[in-house]
Amino acid sequence: MAVTAGNTVACAVRMESVRRTYGAGENAVHALDGVSIDLPRGSFTAVMGPSGSGKSTFLHCAAGLDRPTAGRVLLGDTELTGKKEKALTELRRDRIGFVFQAYNLIGALTIEQNIALPLILANRPVDSAFLAEVVRSVGLDVPLDRRPSKLSGGQQQRVAIARALITRPDVVFLDEPTGALDTRTARQVLGVLRNAVDQWGQTALMVTHDPVAASYADSVVFLADGRLVGSLDRPTPAAIAERMTHLEEW
After folding, report:
1. Using CA atoms in the order 40, 171, 61, 54, what is the torsion angle rounded to 10 degrees?
2. How far apart are CA 169 and CA 191, in angstroms?
3. Is 110 helix (H, G, I), strand (E, B) or coil?
4. Taking the complete model, does pTM exceed 0.85, yes or no?
5. Distance from the CA of 173 to the CA of which of 39, 110, 180, 206 falls in 20 to 30 A?
6. Which segments within the chain are labelled E, that is strand?
7. E strands within 62-113?
8. Strand partners, 13
9. pLDDT tens, the chain, 250 aa long
10. Distance CA 250, CA 46 (A)
11. What angle (nearest 5°) sits at the alpha carbon of residue 246, between those of residues 242 and 247?
């Protein structure tokens, strides 16, 4: 189960009664309404729900990109709630990886420089052997001195995943990572993510609307109206689609 008991350190991410409210009074919108969840280390969790259910807010609060109105968020044994923005920026740079639908690669840099960018910004040395291992693990079989514009969409997303993994992060957050890819390429990219979890014990949290993409995860958690309303272990696309149908009714 993605929602588990256990001590904080055993979890990559913990959210405790997290609420995120926008606006005030009659115009208040509760994007998250008392969400509590533990993400075990080495797990791959997908987050699904209808449009407006709070998926993006869930990811942003878990990753320290947005501040909860109430409740606590912890990355391992480090509480994010209340940290100043500079400390959050450094923590996200050093301990969190991000992959988005837009690849967010820098065109003026080579592939290798794009992958190593988090280390360069942190003034940390680049371990060339580990970089080569990451490149192999994501199946990126192109010259690393090439510019991103010369790559296909699937190759660019592999670069983005390699960049997210290069810091050996506590957790990788993924927001619709296959949304801009064709079906075949999307499956290949999802296989890369699955391999990162299985081979390295990487923790991953992915927001997606695609039942097939979610089926690559160990478990799926479902949101509706800002609340967690269920989870599904060892998910199949059919089981996920059936559960989503009931969420729409919820």
Report:
1. -70
2. 19
3. coil
4. yes
5. 110
6. 11-22, 29-40, 44-48, 70-75, 78-79, 96-100, 171-175, 204-207, 219-224, 227-233
7. 70-75, 78-79, 96-100
8. 39, 75
9. 334 434 445 899 999 999 999 998 888 899 999 999 999 999 999 999 999 999 999 999 999 999 999 999 999 999 998 899 999 999 999 999 999 989 999 999 999 999 999 999 999 999 999 999 999 999 999 999 999 999 999 999 999 999 999 999 999 999 999 988 999 999 999 999 999 999 889 999 999 999 999 999 999 999 999 999 999 999 999 999 999 988 765 5
10. 19
11. 110
Q: Which two tokens stand for residue 9?
A: 């350190």
- CA 193, 194, 196, 202 dihedral sign is positive
What is the 3-state composition of the chain as percent helix, strand, coil, each rounded to the nearest 5? 40, 25, 35
Residue 67: exposed, middle, or buried by beta-carbon count in 10 A (0-12, 13-18, 19+)? middle
**Separation CA 243–CA 231 (nearest Å):** 9
How far apart CA 50 and CA 227 sit, in angstroms, is 12
Nearest-10 crossing angle of helices 128-137, 111-121: 130
Which two three-digit tokens encode residue 163? 């960049």
Contact predicate 224/247, CB 8 Å:
yes
Rounded-to-integer distance, Cα 67 and Cα 69, Å: 7
214, 220 Cβ separation under 8 angstroms: yes
